[in-house]
Amino acid sequence: MKIEINETHKNLISIEISEEIITKAQVQKVEETINNLKDEFSDVRLIILIGEHSKISFKAVLETLKIVRDDHKVIHKIAIVGNSLFIKEGTALDNISLPWTEKYFNIEDLEKAWEWITH
Question: Domains (ranges, CATH) in the chain?
Answer without folding.
Answer: 2-117 (3.30.750)
